[in-house]
Amino acid sequence: MGDGSTTRATLQDVFRTVSETGFGERFLDRLADDLVFTAAGTSPLAGRYTSKAEYSEKVLARLHERLATPIRPTVEQMLVDGEWAMVRFRSAGVHGHNGADFSMQYCWLIRVVDDRIVEITGFYDTKKMIDLFA
Question: pTM for this structure?
Answer without folding.
Answer: 0.93
